[in-house]
């Protein structure tokens, strides 16, 4: 009997997760159904267009896992399809970076979900299998940064690693997505089970992720000291005040008002919310 967790169904779940993320509203500093947050160059329609442009590449990533390709052999295949997805994204957005981080994260998670579907297991198994693809390669990739030739400029995340040892998206993936499996996903599951709407459960999950993830977008936009000392108590206050079961969005709107002057955008947390939605859908397939 054909597994209901086929490459097609996994790819469809990845696309649905990316759309759910951008539609979750109101997200502080981020693009959503109401507005642009701290982004002058992106809006909801662009994110939807970008998600549709990268969707055709999800199936190949899932297939690599479903075929139980060993992690290190899978890396080259995932990288190739990921690079093509990135090109498709930039074509669709006119060169704006909407989902570069998500392409990396979701490619790994789709491999992991395919592997878990074939070998047996749920969200935790999928995240663990995903992390094995990049385990070890992150350290060597970051170690080579200091000797990077001048014609290949460092990215925001790479600069932050050299300056502060921040591992950002790479550390999250290599660590088996702890902000998702230990924080975002349990909050999403519990909130929905208690009767919250999926949108409001997603907002609660986002705040939980913002409180724990090492978001290189926040750091490169507002500075390491702000991210270390000012950002955490602001997020904690919104987390304390926002109840997905009795949704009053004022704490989220007040947080966005504090973010706007500094262009603070938790884009990394937004990507991890997409990953949270994906694993939530994966468990229900
Ligand atoms: C591994 C790569 C994806 C790393 O790429 P790169 O080094 O170029 O990027 P970084 O600067 O390291 O940031 C990566 C993006 O990842 C998101 N992110 C940040 N922190 C985290 C975290 N802790 N956990 C998860 N994800 C995180 C974030 O991406 C989102 O935000 C971007 C949009 O926001 P914006 O502020 O507009 O971003 P910019 O355009 O950079 O800023 P402005 O100029 O506008 O101010 C968007 O990308 C969202 O997705 C970070 O930006 C990559 O190098 C890689 O290896 N790719 C290979 C191809 C591939 O994907 N292969 C498949 C898997 S092997
Ligand atoms: N909704 C969003 N707004 C801004 N940056 C993002 N990166 C991923 N999702 C995003």
UniProtKB/TrEMBL annotation:
<dbReference type="GO" id="GO:0005524">
    <property type="term" value="F:ATP binding"/>
</dbReference>
<dbReference type="InterPro" id="IPR002736">
    <property type="entry name" value="CitG"/>
</dbReference>
<keyword id="KW-0067">ATP-binding</keyword>
<keyword id="KW-0547">Nucleotide-binding</keyword>
<keyword id="KW-0812">Transmembrane</keyword>
<dbReference type="Pfam" id="PF01874">
    <property type="entry name" value="CitG"/>
</dbReference>
<keyword id="KW-1133">Transmembrane helix</keyword>
<dbReference type="GO" id="GO:0051191">
    <property type="term" value="P:prosthetic group biosynthetic process"/>
</dbReference>
<keyword id="KW-0472">Membrane</keyword>
<feature type="transmembrane region" description="Helical">
    <location>
        <begin position="101"/>
        <end position="124"/>
    </location>
</feature>
<dbReference type="GO" id="GO:0046917">
    <property type="term" value="F:triphosphoribosyl-dephospho-CoA synthase activity"/>
</dbReference>
<keyword id="KW-0808">Transferase</keyword>
<protein>
    <recommendedName>
        <fullName>triphosphoribosyl-dephospho-CoA synthase</fullName>
        <ecNumber>2.4.2.52</ecNumber>
    </recommendedName>
</protein>
